[in-house]
Amino acid sequence: MTTTLLHDAYILCLGDSDRIFQQGYLVIEDDRITDVGDMNAVPNHTFDHRIDTTGKLIMPGLVNAHTHTPMTLFRGLAEGVSLFTLDGWYNTIRTLELVMTPDMVPAAVAVACAEMIRTGTTTFADQYFFMDQVIPTVAQSGLRAALGYGVVELGDPAARERELTQLEGFLEEMGGKGEGRLQAWIGPHAFFVDNSLELMERERILADKYGAGFHIHLSTTGEEDLFSNEHFGMSAVQKMAALGMLDHPIIAAHSVTIPEADWSTLARYPFTAVTCPSASMRAGADAAPIVGMRGAGVNIALGTDNVCNSNDYDLFTEMRTLAKLASFREKRPGALPARDVLAIATAGGAKALGLADQIGDLTPGKQADLILLDHTGIGWQPYSANDPFTALVYSIHGLQVTDTMVAGHWLLRNQQWTTLDYPAAAYQLNGNAHRLLTLSHSAKT
């Protein structure tokens, strides 16, 4: 057993107790938090490691509940296009996906993971294909992740069978939801839009067999409801409930246009609406009704989406955008209090991924997934008036993160990556992007 004492830090525990220690300590044994408190009561024990964290703020790591890490390869290649529509996505990103090669994926994933680690994310939910290329890099990164095998069918029976075969192979390899840091999820791109009713039913059967959840896109522009009302005489949510899809955990990216009449239904199921405010704004889409859905009891989590839509992985920036966009949508200041925004970015994501008993706050017994920020930098002052919740949401950026820990292991120490070689990955990514554009140009000509 290895024990570590972090001492003399400003500590935000969050969670139900919501304890704050202005000069506190935190004890870690192997991969778990065993004690947290005020320095006046620090245990008189011998520790394997004693780390002075004076001038640091310690808080739970953030959860990015929706992204597509391989799409870092496409950053900057979909400017001025809404990827929230089937047409926008198909005529930009999909054309690139059709010529990309599997060997381009690891460097893109490594850069994405490095950026998340550097800016305070400790857990993320991914959805894409080429999972055989994604898994080793995520495992190397040390991050906690829910990896969803992306399924796109577009009504093609041959594609349906191919995708189902590959999906089940992925679930077999990962052992259902698995143990440890990595989970396996089923990632239909979008129910009704590019996953047919037949495919959905067979995905549900696989979810039953492997105990997996669904990571989907839902209600970005209302396409699902238009289709469902036309073909079934009910909303998409009502049809999903009738099919038994809602009985499984679902993380639903965007959830911008879910009818208010369906909110109470979703609140009864293990359903999470993942809001990606920067992506919504850049796509020219409506602001998701986060305040209303949350008030109705729907779990809310935060995501960046791919970096063609939002362009960066900084969840601190995403929290700030969410808080401001909520006030803009509701036409009242403070519509989503800063403390609630932090809960969405931590506990909301933990609940979404079925990890509420493991991560999301600094409670003894939970996993040691935490981040340290420079508490002496810009944005914090004056301490006497600027409460830490407001500062974290409205003043602080992810680059103030100095250290990132997952399961008791440092992934970032003193602003230096310990598990990934970011410069090497970035160099490889640039070469791959050049090759991708050459292949794309050749395919068009």
Question: Can you walk me through this structure?
Answer:
The protein has 15 helices and 17 strands. It is 37% helix and 24% strand. Helix 9 (263-267) links the parallel strand 11 (250-254) and strand 12 (271-275). The protein has helices at residues 86-90, 93-97, 105-118, 131-141, 157-174, 197-210, 223-232, 236-243, 263-267, 277-282, 290-295, 315-330, 338-352, 388-394, 422-444; strands at 3-14, 19-29, 32-38, 49-52, 56-60, 62-67, 121-128, 144-151, 182-188, 214-218, 250-254, 271-275, 299-302, 370-374, 401-406, 409-413, 416-417. Helix 13 crosses helix 14. The strands form three sheets. Strands 1, 2, 3, 4, 5, 14, 15, 16 and 17 form a nine-stranded mixed beta sheet that branches. Strands 6-7-8-9 form a four-stranded parallel beta sheet, sandwiched between helices. The model has no long low-confidence stretch (mean pLDDT 95). The chain has two domains: 3-60 and 358-417, Urease, subunit C, domain 1; 62-352, Alpha-Beta Barrel (TIM Barrel). The chain has 445 residues and is of the alpha/beta class.
In brief:
The chain is an alpha/beta fold and 445 residues long. It has helices at residues 86-90, 93-97, 105-118, 131-141, 157-174, 197-210, 223-232, 236-243, 263-267, 277-282, 290-295, 315-330, 338-352, 388-394, 422-444, and strands at residues 3-14, 19-29, 32-38, 49-52, 56-60, 62-67, 121-128, 144-151, 182-188, 214-218, 250-254, 271-275, 299-302, 370-374, 401-406, 409-413, 416-417.
